[in-house]
User: Which sequence fits this backbone?
């Protein structure tokens, strides 16, 4: 007889639905194997032929961390393109390179952690470069385009599985794992949730990553919003991946739970499915899960639910159907098409902020390109390694010819003199190989060590002239003549070893601190270690004792070199901005909008020597710059591998700039709220609410041609507004225009945006050509969150539609009258008042009512705060007020017309913050009134009820 092999398990049968196959595979797995799947590095199950799997491959603007790959503009630069189709094509190219790299390096994962859809609410946030825009509509549109490109267009299988970052209300690096964002319900629904919701509903998202911070007193990794909101937006089983180390933070830095078992259980129950913690070591997480199961904090069903979600992603990625996977043989990597796309994206991201006719440059112009970034192509933490490189200087050489271009970097050239009279010297190392940080790839580049194969610095009579690059805020880098930066490795020695500043902890930054002030002496502090540089017999090192006192001998001032180059040129281009690893990055917020003082000095020197000076800002974030005397100003994010060529082509007029600002550029620091103030409505943040005069408004960007707008029409059809207008290129240059449509409630009953982006379209028009643009604006986009009733509401009345070239450059207006639901007073006799559903507040913050769900309100720092609730309907009258609160303090109730308190309710001390008690007082009030609650002391108010 012939022996027949046993039938393959059902999970191997591609004819079955994924859900049935997942159930079958789950049944084959033992409890321990299921638990092991909860860690980021899920092990192989060899007896079933199931491979190991890793969640998380960074791919924000190209494949990151895994070695050479195509590098596209930073995310904020992609946002500045306002071009959905372009961004979709970038996503396609990135995901193709993920697949191609995966084929030769199984460290590369297909579950990509991108894009970032945190809104760029505050321009001092260190991770501004990672987001797309301050506006939810623009952010969700760009994010949707990118995720569609990452996902691919096959109806069943996905090229990569995108995970959105970072859920939720996360815009500060300062104490990011312990600060709480106080987010009132209107801001939550109308602002922070919107970008996530619209992107998830578009159907190309595999999951989300919670952020490190807390929202309303509760860590995002145990947020009920994952269940209440995120999972309600789609029928797909979204995978929630923790941020690195965040599960441990729940019990460690945040001390939200007493034990790691409680924390892990709470995260799983809330909806976290994959734990990124302790690197590749899964033992701690799996032990915590087992401990939680033993303590009955979790059930096996909870574990199974999380495993199902992970398996759903793996099946969609074709892991179990390699022969059917349409993307299995993808090999597109560093193709001519990808290189062309990188250039196109870099060109389209450039924003012309100001131009008094200086640009474009005429043929034969002699150009001086100067500044700290004039010959740089900077990468950020989430970049891949450059395969190709183009700096502004190289781009201008290529475009205008080297004989027409002069260069001055603007750095100070210095020698560091020791107390013994010798100078620091960089030894020659002719046999040392050139190395680029991260070129070999690393799953966790934070673990990459510095080079120790080069000799440490010494001191001798001649020394070495170093380039001192001043990045502002007393942070500097020092570069040797061969281009290598001074860096400190784990052994503590100072070497000229780094190709660029970088790393999770940057080891190439220093600070000069005055020491022997009588003789101009300085200590040289190494910022990465916090130690001071000393000179010893065996070399220059960072040591705990005997710090060297250095005197700075300046051989050339950077401003002098800039002035010389500027004076000899027809036009000067000052290239200024930031290094993405310094003064504003992940873990570090900026402290000011100002351009660093040294770069301001270079700009002044260039301008004084030659008034025909253009400023090209290359930065991850906005600056506040005095532009009144500058004939031309441009901005681009760090533009990736083709940045320099793109800038040169725009300066030359080969490309008419059409990037638009994705966030407001404020005129000064005084225009900014506190970094931790997340109430965009109450503190009038972003273009939606800001009432001052910005330096440059949201959506701003100029062109080398002009455009006319005419014929705005709008009509309502069922639940849509159909809007159209015509745009005409009225100039003599073919160019792109970004036509923008905004809406505004004319007579709102509550604070509403001054104007709000409803739609946009980037179009290309030849001179004299016109295009009629049509848009559909859903009426639901005009709704607001009615805190009085806990739901969305379209207010009846007039709404203005505004068409133009930016949020402030409005060319056309029309008004439509819409029916809606009239405002109704709060039914406080029936529902009372949930504390967080206020209309206005002063000196309060929202906190967690319980560790599982709900909100309460507390005065800031246990002081005195106020809450205002409008239009409270007491009907024929009430005679008693009941306060539900914890802590200790007093709640005074008065009518908002300024009269005396009608009731004062004392809250006695409760055992803990989650131990709520009720207290009552007599109250006599009837009819409809605005109510003011004054909270005094360290109490947490959850609810106020009325009776009688």
Assistant:
């Amino acid at each position: 007889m012939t022996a027949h092999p046993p039938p393959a398990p059902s999970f191997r049968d591609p004819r079955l639905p994924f859900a049935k196959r997942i159930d079958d595979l789950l049944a084959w797995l033992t409890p321990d194997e299921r638990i092991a799947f909860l860690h980021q590095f899920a092990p192989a199950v060899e007896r079933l032929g199931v491979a190991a799997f890793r969640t998380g491959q960074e791919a924000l603007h190209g494949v990151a961390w895994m070695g050479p790959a195509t590098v596209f503009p930073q995310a904020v630069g992609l946002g500045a393109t306002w071009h959905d189709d372009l961004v979709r094509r970038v996503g396609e190219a990135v995901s193709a390179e993920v697949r191609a790299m995966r084929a030769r390096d199984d460290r590369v994962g297909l579950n990509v952690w991108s894009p970032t859809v945190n809104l760029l609410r505050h321009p001092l946030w260190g991770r501004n470069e990672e987001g797309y825009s301050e506006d939810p509509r623009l952010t969700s549109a760009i994010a949707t385009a990118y995720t569609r490109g990452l996902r691919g267009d096959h109806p069943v299988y996905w090229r990569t599985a995108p995970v959105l970052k970072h859920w939720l209300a996360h815009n500060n690096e300062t104490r990011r794992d312990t600060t709480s964002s106080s987010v009132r319900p209107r801001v939550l629904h109308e602002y922070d949730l919107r970008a996530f919701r619209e992107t998830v509903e578009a159907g190309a998202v595999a999951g989300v990553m919670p952020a490190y911070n807390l929202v309303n007193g509760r860590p995002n990794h145990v947020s009920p919003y994952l269940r209440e909101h995120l999972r309600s937006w789609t029928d797909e089983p979204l995978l929630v991946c923790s941020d690195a180390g965040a599960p441990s933070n729940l019990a460690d830095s945040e001390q939200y739970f007493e034990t790691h078992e409680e924390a892990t259980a709470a995260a799983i129950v809330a909806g976290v499915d994959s734990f990124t913690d302790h690197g590749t070591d899964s033992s701690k997480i799996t032990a915590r899960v087992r401990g939680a199961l033993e303590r009955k904090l979790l059930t096996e069903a909870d574990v199974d639910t999380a495993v199902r979600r992970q398996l759903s992603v793996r099946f969609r990625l074709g892991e179990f159907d390699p022969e059917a996977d349409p993307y299995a043989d993808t090999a597109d990597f560093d193709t001519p098409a990808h290189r062309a796309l990188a250039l196109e994206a870099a060109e389209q991201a450039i924003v012309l902020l100001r131009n008094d006719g200086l640009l474009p440059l005429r043929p034969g112009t002699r150009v001086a390109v100067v500044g700290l970034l004039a010959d740089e192509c900077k990468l950020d933490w989430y970049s891949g390694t450059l395969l190709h490189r183009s700096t502004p200087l190289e781009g201008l050489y290529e475009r205008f010819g080297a004989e027409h271009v002069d260069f001055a970097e603007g750095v100070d050239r210095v020698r560091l003199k020791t107390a013994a009279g010798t100078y620091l010297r960089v030894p020659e190392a002719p046999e040392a190989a050139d190395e680029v940080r991260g070129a070999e790839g690393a799953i966790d580049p934070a673990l990459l060590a510095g080079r120790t194969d080069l000799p440490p610095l010494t001191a001798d009579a001649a020394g070495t002239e170093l380039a001192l690059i001043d990045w502002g805020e007393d942070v500097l880098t020092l570069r040797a003549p061969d281009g290598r930066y001074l860096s400190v490795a784990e052994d503590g020695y100072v070497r000229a070893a780094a190709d660029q500043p970088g790393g999770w902890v940057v080891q190439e930054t220093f600070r000069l601190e005055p020491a022997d002030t009588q003789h101009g002496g300085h200590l040289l502090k190494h910022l990465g270690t916090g130690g001071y540089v000393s000179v010893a017999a065996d070399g220059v090192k960072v040591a705990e004792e005997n710090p060297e006192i250095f005197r700075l001998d300046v051989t050339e001032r950077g401003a002098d070199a800039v002035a010389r180059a500027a004076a000899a040129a027809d036009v000067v281009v000052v290239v200024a901005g930031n290094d993405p690893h310094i003064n504003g990055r992940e873990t570090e917020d900026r402290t000011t909008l100002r351009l660093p003082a040294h770069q301001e000095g270079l700009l002044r020197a260039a301008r004084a020597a030659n008034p025909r000076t253009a400023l090209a800002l290359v930065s991850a974030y906005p600056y506040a710059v005095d532009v009144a005397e500058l004939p031309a100003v441009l901005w681009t994010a760090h533009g990736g591998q083709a940045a320099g060529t793109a800038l040169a082509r725009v300066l030359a007029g080969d490309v008419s700039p059409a990037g638009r600002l994705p966030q407001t550029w404020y005129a000064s620091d005084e225009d900014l709220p506190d970094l931790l103030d997340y109430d965009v409505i109450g503190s009038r943040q972003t273009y939606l609410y800001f009432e001052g005069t910005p330096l440059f408004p949201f959506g701003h960007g100029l062109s080398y041609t002009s455009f006319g707008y005419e014929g705005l029409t709008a009509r309502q059809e069922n639940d849509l507004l159909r809007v159209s207008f015509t745009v005409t290129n009225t100039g003599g240059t073919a160019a792109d225009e970004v036509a923008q449509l905004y809406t505004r409630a004319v007579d709102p009953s509550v604070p509403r945006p001054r104007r709000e982006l409803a739609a946009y379209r980037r179009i290309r028009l030849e001179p004299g050509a016109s295009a009629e643009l049509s848009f559909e604006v859903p009426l639901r986009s005009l709704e607001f969150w009615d805190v009085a009733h806990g739901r969305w509401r379209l207010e009846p009345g007039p709404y203005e539609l505004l068409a133009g070239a930016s949020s402030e450059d409005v060319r056309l207006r029309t008004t439509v009258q819409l029916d809606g639901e009239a405002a109704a007073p709060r039914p406080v006799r029936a529902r009372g008042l949930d504390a967080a559903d206020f209309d206005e507040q002063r000196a309060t913050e929202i906190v967690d009512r319980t560790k599982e769900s709900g909100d309460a309100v507390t005065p800031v720092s246990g002081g005195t705060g106020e809450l205002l609730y409008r239009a409270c309907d007491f009907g024929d009258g009430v005679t008693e007020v009941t306060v539900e609160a914890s802590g200790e303090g007093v709640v005074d109730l008065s009518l908002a017309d300024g009269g005396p308190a009608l009731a004062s309710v004392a809250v006695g001390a409760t055992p803990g913050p989650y131990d709520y008690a009720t207290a009552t007082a007599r109250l006599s009030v009837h009819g409809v009134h605005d109510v003011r609650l004054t909270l005094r002391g360290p109490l947490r108010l959850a609810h106020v009820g009325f009776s009688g």
The mean pLDDT is 96.
